[in-house]
Specification:
Helices cover about 25% and strands about 15% of the residues. It has five helices and 13 strands.
Amino acid sequence: MFRVCAVVLFLVTLTAAHPTEQPLESPQPPAADQPAPPAVSYQPSAAEQLSALLSPLVEGAVSRAQCGWQLAQLAGRLERLQAGADAGHRALAELTRQQLRLDSVVHDVTALQLSELTRAGQAVPVVRGEVCQPPQERRDGKELSAAPEPVTNMTKRHIPQSGAILEQQPELEPGPEPVHQVRPTAEVESEADCEAHPAALPAHVAAYQEPETRACARSCLQLRNQGVAQDGVYWLTGLPVPVLCDFSHDDGGWTLLLTAVSRDGWDPYSVLGRSELSPSLTDNYSILRHADTIRDLGSGTRFAYRIETQAEKGRQRWGGIWFAPKHYSFVDETALQTNVSLMKRFDVWVYQSEGIKRRMPWINTWGYHEFKPVLTTATKDVNFWGTLVTHSSEVRFSPSPWHPPSARDSGTVLYWMREEVF
């Protein structure tokens, strides 16, 4: 359009510059008896009139073209800034996951060092319950006093702290007769052992205290594989919080990540961890920030997650079981994790724009929909049906908008995971 306007303007200008020439006539003196001709006012030519009409149109077209180009440049810059911010959030989430994995590795190394010492017959002072605790949650304890029998040369060892390398202390001279004797190695091993077949902790406890001995398993699926079949709360090796395991549904081995019974107190921060010492099916609860650590225990290429809604009316309602690629995160903030497969459907429903979406739940840290959806399967625009956790500022649903018409309100939401699909 810009080129057409420019050509028209050029033709108009050319026409105005070279008007049609009229032949010159010799002036004739007026006759004496004839009156003088009346004066004729100047009339602009057709070319000049056309030029005057087209000039504002051409100027407007040029101005609009310039504005459009500037808007396109600004939109491109905004897209690049948004992409950079998304990449930063993903990098921060990955750094958090790697830190949790590092803590778990340090704990494993410490436990292995203690195991090697006890197997070699070394006297290792042990604080009850310390071996199975992750390094960040260990309690400081006073080492048991012990004096060795008199020998010519003696070395003294100590418990490694948080994966520290064992060091041999300088040789000491023989001391006086010992006051206390070192406990037998068998006794040390029995205290350092974890439980392969633990019993579930009592239900409905306000805050579960760490037991003297943890379960040897690191996930509910590992407990299932070890023969444990009682639903309930367990303290597992490698996790700083207790977990609630479900062995009764869908082949068992499910770890509860989140329970949402109301809108009170939820936001993008509290959804990562809430009432972590009180796993419950009937109160608001979350250990979502530990989910990727459990996911990484799997050896396959996929993991499974399960969503149940309206759990106050019964289990396995209006949700299902999905398989997701191993690299997908439970704390994703991008809403881009859509390559998930629905393997089992609870009740009768289909994906729809106003309902459950084919997307792994993501955390809304960017403020879409005025921060009302906190954990959701929805898109970033249009609406936020298919939401698991909702901010208290949204009062139209109880507690979250889910899948109308049959399940308009989510009711109690249960969010589970299993690190292996089978």
